[in-house]
Amino acid sequence: MRVFANLDEFAATKGEHLGFGEWHEVTQDEINLFADATGDHQWIHVDLEKAAAGPFGAPVAHGYLTLSLIPMLVRDVYTVQGLKMGVNYGLNKVRFPSPVVVGSRVRAGAELVEVADVAQGKQAVVRVTVEIDGNPKPGCVAETVVLLVA
């Protein structure tokens, strides 16, 4: 965990890789809950028998489930002290280069790409790569945009 004393110290690391978070196992329960929350019950995610005979040999996490894990996965990478709040502002670019098969372990790596002063504090673009243990291709690469208010 990389700890920044304030927003200025964080901004000074623009262009740097901030580190990696802890590994997290993607479970079928998580996939099923996500399917229920979104209404996306495609067989490749929730039908164990059919998915086992499918192209990946097992159910795979929804791409958007992998994307939605980013806040949890990044919380172990870095923190900025003294913030009143951090708000997800959006995404610039998202890709899902490799499927995340149920039972896979994933973790986030983060790089501070851009930082801009805004009225409330700073707006940062953080490129997050969701790695899959044992797979050379990541499950997700996303440029997240966050508003950091001190």
From TrEMBL:
Domain MaoC-like: 10-130
Annotated coiled-coil segments of the chain: none
InterPro entries with a match to the protein in the record: HotDog_dom_sf, MaoC-like_dom, NodN-like
Domain of life: Bacteria
Residue ranges of the TM segments: none
One family name in Pfam for this protein: MaoC_dehydratas
Family according to the record: Belongs to the enoyl-CoA hydratase/isomerase family.
Cross-referenced PANTHER family: MAOC-LIKE DEHYDRATASE DOMAIN-CONTAINING PROTEIN
Protein name listed in UniProt: MaoC family dehydratase
Lineage: Bacteria, Bacillati, Actinomycetota, Actinomycetes, Pseudonocardiales
